[in-house]
């Protein structure tokens, strides 16, 4: 169980690194889950001698304008219920994040001094993956199953034994979807940098004792259905005879 979560965390951090490196040229990268809040801090002390500070979105839409000497704060109408500004630190709190809040946030002081720049990505939580058993076969000392794992718009098919899962058709595990096996349990992980979900299948169908139990259950189920059918048929005959006698 611990090893399984270590695998998930490794995948998680790998994806986060990809996000950070991709957005580094646009400013400090921040990745958040929909509905969360984020605090954007200035990267220089507030005591810089500036008289004006502006937080903007995508370099074109003003969010906050703060005239420091006169202590006059203007929060634009579209953001009055969306942000909180800290006059002491110049930090900006953005609440209830949605996907359209993704973009570049910049704090500029007097003379267009850039005090902070962030590239914010707001992501939805991932959907639970769908893990399907396709086929299974076994020998006296081994068990192999083929499974299909689907998450979002991605899909993987792998052949798994009790130790490894091998992608079929040359497909490879990507950063959002992966298949692994441990202790005869196949795990499909679906993740992004802010959330993950998993689905599991046990490989117990491969083992003769479990197949025997399954067949035994199937046999008794058929016998029970047959008995119920005969009983209902007999009751129907008795009712017809009773109606004729009446």
Automatic annotation (TrEMBL):
It is found in: Membrane. Keywords: Glycoprotein, Membrane, Signal. InterPro entries: CD2/SLAM_rcpt (IPR015631), Ig-like_dom_sf (IPR036179), Ig-like_fold (IPR013783). It comes from the Eukaryota. Its main location: membrane. GO terms for cellular component: membrane. This is Immunoglobulin V-set domain-containing protein. It comes from Denticeps clupeoides (denticle herring). The gene is LOC114788062.
């Amino acid at each position: 169980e611990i090893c399984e979560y270590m695998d998930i965390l490794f995948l998680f951090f790998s994806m986060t690194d990809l996000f950070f490196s991709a957005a580094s040229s646009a400013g400090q990268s921040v990745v958040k889950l929909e509905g969360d809040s984020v605090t954007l801090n200035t990267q220089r002390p507030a005591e810089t001698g500036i008289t004006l500070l502006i937080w903007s979105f995508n370099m074109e839409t003003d969010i906050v304008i703060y005239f420091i000497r006169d202590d006059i704060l203007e929060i634009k109408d579209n953001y009055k219920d969306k942000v909180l500004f800290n006059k002491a630190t110049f930090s900006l709190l953005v609440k209830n994040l949605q996907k359209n809040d993704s973009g570049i946030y910049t704090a500029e002081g007097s003379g267009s001094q850039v005090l902070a720049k962030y590239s914010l990505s707001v992501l939805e939580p991932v959907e639970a993956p769908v893990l399907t058993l396709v086929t299974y076969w076994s020998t006296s000392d081994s068990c192999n199953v083929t499974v299909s794992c689907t998450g979002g718009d991605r899909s993987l098919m792998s052949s798994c034994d009790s130790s490894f899962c091998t992608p079929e058709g040359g497909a490879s595990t990507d950063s959002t979807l992966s298949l692994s096996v441990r202790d005869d349990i196949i795990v499909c992980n679906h993740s992004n940098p802010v959330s993950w979900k998993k689905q599991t299948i046990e490989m117990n169908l491969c083992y003769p004792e479990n197949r025997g139990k399954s067949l035994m259950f199937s046999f008794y189920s058929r016998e029970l259905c047959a008995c119920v059918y005969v009983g209902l048929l007999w009751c129907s005959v008795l009712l017809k005879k009773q109606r004729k006698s009446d």
